[in-house]
Each structure stands twice: as C-alpha cells, then as structure tokens.
Amino acid sequence: MSENNQLTETIERYLNGEMTRAERASFEKLRSEDAEVNAQVAEHRHFTNLIKQYGERLELEKRLDAIHDEIDVHALEDEMMIHPSWVVRMWRNHHSKISVAASIAIFAVLSTLFFTGYLSNRELNYSQLKGEINQIKNKTAQLNTQVNQLAPNTPRSAVMNPGNFRGTGFAISSNGYIVTDNHVIQRADSVYVQSNDGKSYKTKVVYTEPQNDIAILEIVDPSFKALPALPYTFKKGETDLGENVFTIGYPKDNIVLGSGLLTSATGYRGDTTQYQISALLDYGHSGGPLLDSKGNIVGIINGKQTRVEGAAFAVKTSYLLKAIKDIPSDSLSKPININGKNILAGLGRTQQIKKLENYVFMVRVYNQ
Amino acid sequence: MSNETNSGVPTDSEVILGILNNSESVLKRLYIAYFPMVLQLVINNNGDSDDAKDIYQEAIIVLYNKVKTGDFELSSKLKTYIYSICRRLWLKRLSQMNRYGGDIKDFQEYLVVDDESEKNNERDIQFNKMGSALQQLGEPCKTIIEHFYINNKSMQEICDEFGYTNADNAKTQKYKCLQRLKKLFFQQK
Fold first, then answer.
1. Closest by CA position to A131, among listed A16, A2, A248, A285
2. B-chain residues within 8 Å CB-CB of A53?
3. 3-state helix, strand, coil in chain B (%, to 5)
C-alpha cells in the first residue's frame, strides 16, 4: 500500500515536473525498463487529466448558466415567437366548435337541397315537352270571358274536351302506325290523334319502350283511310354536328315549326341515345319528328333543358328503328312498312313542311 | 474603442482569441449575441426555452472545446456555424422525442455540419461517469480530489484546510481517495 502510494507520488511529481534532473533521469530509466511502471504513468496521467477536464467542464457550464441567468428569456421568447395570424389562433382554440358548426351547416344545406328536390336535377333542369292542356284551357276561359264582356253578342263556340295532355306524333307507315314519346301517353286511358285537317282518330298503344321514351300507336278508327306513301325516310346512321335540322309539332292547335342546328351528338348529361339541338321548342313538341335538311328523319323530339335557352333533345332514329323491330308480331294487326320514298330532298323548307303536315299528328291523351 | 468592443456582438476572431485567453467578457458577449437566434429556432419548432438553453450551451461547449484543442477552422461566419450546430442538435433531439414532423422552420442560412456531437458524446459519457463517481466518493475525499486535481491547490493548503497534522497524512488520505475514485469510476458501465 505505502509502496503504491510512494509510486503514485513519484509519478505525480514526475508529471508535474517537480523532480530534480537526476531524479528525472533515473525515473525515466525505470519507466523504460519496467513496463508496468510505464503503464501506470500513462494511466495516472489519463485519469487525472479526465478529472481536470471534468472540473473545467463544470466550471464552463457554471459560467454559461451565470450568463444565461442574466438574459431575460421571457421577454426574448415573446419577441422571437412567430405569432400565427388570428385565423390560425382561432382555429387552434376553437377548432372542435368550428368543426361541429360546419358539419351542421353542411348537413342543413344538403337536407334543404334534398327536400326541395334540387338534387334530383333531371326533373328540374330537364323538362319533357308534352303540353298540359288544363293550364292553357283555364287561360283560354279567362280570355273568353274577357272577350265575351267586350263583345257580348259573339256566340260562344262549343267547348270540346281537348284532352288532358297533348303531344305530337308522326306516321311511321302509311297504314296508320304512329310514333310518339312514351311520356306523352303514359298513364293514358285513351289516346286520340288529330290530323292537320282536324279529323280525330282513336288509337291503341301497341308498344312502348320506356327506357328510350318511345311509344308506337296504331290508328284503330274505322274512318281512317290509309295515307299516301311516306314522303320521308329514316336515317339509320348518326348525324353529324352542325346539320340543319327542324321539327314541326303541336304546342298549340296549329302546327309550329322549330328549327336549329344539331349541336351535340349526346343528350342531357351525355346521354348517348339522344342528340342535342339548338331549337326553341315548346311544351307539346314532344314526339315530333326531327328532320335534316334533306328530309330524313334523324330523331324524335323528347325534351329540353330548362335553364339553358335553346337546348333541346331528340331520341336518335336508330332507337326508333330498333323499337319497331322489337314489337312482338302478335300485337300487330297489319305489317309495318316503314320504307317511304324521300321526295323532300330537293325541296325548300316551306314545300317540305307542306308535304309533311299530313303525316304529323296532334296526340291527345285522356285520363281520369 | 474598448467600450465599443466590450459590448455588442464580438467579431469572430475576437471570440476565438477570447476563448483561448479564457476571457470572461468575450464568452458573455458571445453567449448573449447568438442566444436569441437559437431561441427563435427552438421555440418555433416545437421546443421551449429550456430546450433552447440546453442545445445552445451544448453548441457553445462544442465550439469552446474545438477552439481550445486547436482544431477549429472557421469556414463560414461564426453565427452560421453556431446556428448550424444548434439546428443539427435540435433536429436530433426532436427525432429522439418523436416530435419531428418532417420539416423545420429556418430563420438563418445554415451549413451541413459533421456530427461533432459523436466525439462530444463520448466525452460526455466519461464526464457523467466521473461526476457520479465523485458523488459516490463522498466527503472529505471529494473536496480533497477537487482541490488537488481541479483547483490545483498544494498539499499544504489542503492539509491546513482539513486540519491534518502533517502533509504526509494528507498525502496518504489523498492517495486512498484517488484509489477509491478510480475503483468507482471503472466499476460503472
């Protein structure tokens, strides 16, 4: 023990440079001869250095802490903190409340839209062009009374029941088959067609295809006489954009022309069974023929977009031809011969309409 | 002139000379000059002022030791260097705490610095061991060792302070203390 103590003290004196020259020389000789002593010197130096450095580190930390204590960290913190904008702060503080409020608002808006029918856009934006007679009839009655007051002596014309609804239909064969829109005749008790010269014929619905909105009627009235051969043909293929098209129909008691351009190869919301056309059409045009400038039937008028002026729709002829083919043969009393001879091709618009008039009928629908 | 240089931000070479000369005032000016920048970095990136103090002091110690050992080479502004070290230390600590969200708001330009803290860590571990060994050593050994090896007091002073009858007794006591300290130090893992 004391020997080791002696050695340690010697090493310390050696390391601190407290030895005399002679002592130093003899100790260095001992070091070089005795490896153990040498190792002890190294170890002692390392360890005491570590103690010293540890002390210095403590000292430095103490100094830094002392300096740190002089800094007003709080004031500095306030200065250095990036204050988020009031929107962000409000969001952080109140985000749960805001979220709840927003969900309620969204729910309220959606349910209002749902119950007001706004979400079922088709009904609101798209309206089928069958005419509802009663409104018109009431207005006519009002007008009549006004007229009567003004001219009390004028005899009142006998009021005929004009039907609950009306639309337009056109012949697809000369022997009395007529096509119209399914929505015109649905839920009908009886369906009559009235030709341009005012004659009314009873018809029977022989076939309907609700998915394409097509209905085929047959005139069953004994007074009906077969028409001359059809003056138009049915176009099987697609018609190109920009084609000049027109239709005639019965939104009122006389034939009304609607004309425009074929503006899109698809109908409402991309419906590929329809064309879009730029014609100003009225309620009652439904079921009318859509013809191109050469007198080919390219479609059947179906509806219009209520919020867009001059966007009307017509079912493509190919679906009509398909429907005709799909009619079960036992529901037909006579064969349908749709092959006509197109005599409209070279004629002007007025002449074309004159030829067409006899083949386009007003469809009157009666129900309870 | 001396007034001017004794307050405000010290120049980079002033800092290095000051550290080498153990200048208290330079250290203080250095500390005060760059602390706000580090505080800003930390408190705006998920930390508080105590975190800022910790990593700032760690960075200052890194700088201090590098300058003292003579392997410090200033390749950019000292401000940028300190910011870079602090940024690196803070990122490391954030990811250790799992609070690192993947991006950090920067307020200064910075450099990519080598991982100085690796070397520093090794040293820190040794220092921690030494600290706890000294703690376990107890009095009067702790004070004797500190006086002799850290504060460079002579054996005679220690002898007087502790009332040993002669310096030899004090020496024997110091020797025993040192042996125990070594034992305690190397016992730790």
1. A285
2. 123, 127
3. 70, 0, 30
pLDDT in tens, A16-72: 777 788 888 888 888 888 878 788 888 888 888 888 888 888 888 888 888 888 888
* Amino acid at residue number A257: L
Tokens of A14: 């050696």
Report the CATH number that the domain containing residue A296 is assigned in CATH.
Answer: 2.40.10.120
How close does chain B come to A22, measured CA to CA in Å? 23
The SS3 call for residue A361 is strand
User: Which of these three, B84, B114, B144, is where a domain ends?
Assistant: B114
The residue among B28, B125, B175 with the most chain A CBs within 10 A of its CB, best to mutate, is B175
What is the Cα–Cα distance from B77 to B87, expressed in whole angstroms?
15
- Residue A174, classed as helix, strand or coil, is coil
Q: What does pTM read for this prediction?
A: 0.47
Domain span at B64: 2-114
Dist. CA A291–CA A288, nearest whole Å: 10
The complex's ipTM works out to 0.80
Consecutive H or E run containing A248: strand A244-249
CB contact under 8 A, B149 and A52: yes
